[in-house]
């Protein structure tokens, strides 16, 4: 490589090797003077068992934070949380323009107004099909079908060539709301010559074509019309096509729609503003539910992923202030559980079934389709685009590996297996990984962002597994223990395997340890804490079979 030579590089910081937290950088120029654009800035959901106390995860953007004077903008492909959900948290670290279509822009603005203290982001509207020039980049939004309106691939042009970043997409000729994926548009890009296709891998392991939203709409219409009593439909709040399908089905059989949940309300407001619910009557508020005839109502509820504070979970627990269901009512899960959420969703379903509510899921009816392409759809994309290089993204290791084999089978000359932090040189020369940079996760812990190395998470995991023993000891300056140590156990069973109280086991271990130490050693507070810690953990392990976390504090008097 010639020193100072202009290069085009790709650097994912999230969403490659995982589902969610999508954030990708494209850089152009010599290494010391490279300019950058970012595509998407999304969040992920943390599992409570793996990340106790943590709800949300964000990509670690420290690499580009250090170079933010060279970052020219963030370009949003679409308004799903795994593509825009980190904007509010991370934008203050970057403070660059954020480009998005009207729907995504309005959704970001609406959410900011509902979140106290959220930053006023520099949002700039982009028209689908239009081109935006920033520095050495020209970016064109190319409409695609997906499970939210105004989804786009982004064609990125530089002096080094054209890269197509597909974002999330599928082929759906009848999407109910939103655009179709145009063969002509992508064929034209292929004719221009595509240096690299950076493509969605989510459903590459599934054969065939995914069904259309129109087919789901037809099923929902039948299921709502056939129900003798109340119907509740839960889906992703962002799925405007599904919201429209439910509303059209309700109108067709003389029912009114009641929208329930803040996220649902936000999306409905923006969808109406952008014209995606034109021709449909206004939806009713949740407090009207009790006054509407049982056979003349449909509820649209948040909570399809089992979120404990969402509307459906509260309904299933019978603690929602407005919405209630009874035996003979019907609940339709117009969604599929994201991996990791199955247990929470199953718990809600069981609660509803126990109450005599009929539950319908995609296991038995076509009430949900994915927004991502199956293999035959991907075959079409590769036929249209004919890229020189394929880079699988948006998937876990299994999806990326399978996509790499698939791309080679389509005749792609170069396939680059990237992961978060892989710096890929696209041009000049053969595309390949040339370096690895820092990439990781940030966790939203209450109102604080912490990184992966923060001790809070492993300590919480340990507390979940083995509880905590707390010991406080007062020792004077002569090395004399004053009074009895204060001992408490939290999260341990009351008794050991032979029935002995565990608190007594701890007290005995502390007493034996202190009585066996000389005054000279008792003057060393740190040494006392370590010795007592070790003795307590060993003693508890002998009678319980687990070593708890232990907090020993010596108070010097």
For this entry, give a set of tags.
single chain; 557 residues; alpha/beta; Rossmann fold; Ubiquitin-like (UB roll); 3 domains; 25% strand; globular; RNA binding; metal ion binding
Account of the protein in words:
The relative contact order is 0.11. This protein folds into three domains: 7-208 and 370-451, Metallo-beta-lactamase, Chain A; 213-360, Metallo-hydrolase/oxidoreductase (Rossmann fold); 467-556, Ubiquitin-like (UB roll) (Roll), CATH 3.10.20. The mean pLDDT is 93. With 557 residues, the protein is of the alpha/beta class. The strands form five sheets. Strands 8-7-6-3-2-1-21-22 form an eight-stranded mixed beta sheet. A seven-stranded mixed beta sheet has the order 9-10-11-12-13-19-20. It has a five-stranded parallel beta sheet with strand order 15-16-14-17-18, sandwiched between helices. The longest helix is centred in the C-terminal third of the chain and has 20 residues, at 525-544. The N and C termini lie far apart (68 Å).
CATH topology of the largest domain: Metallo-beta-lactamase, Chain A
Q: What is the share of helical residues?
A: 25-40%
CATH architecture of the largest domain: 4-Layer Sandwich
Count of individual beta strands: 27
Strands ordered across the widest β-sheet? 8-7-6-3-2-1-21-22
The total tally of domains equals 3
CATH superfamily of the largest domain: Ribonuclease Z/Hydroxyacylglutathione hydrolase-like
The fraction of residues in strands falls at: 15-25%
The DSSP helix count reads 16
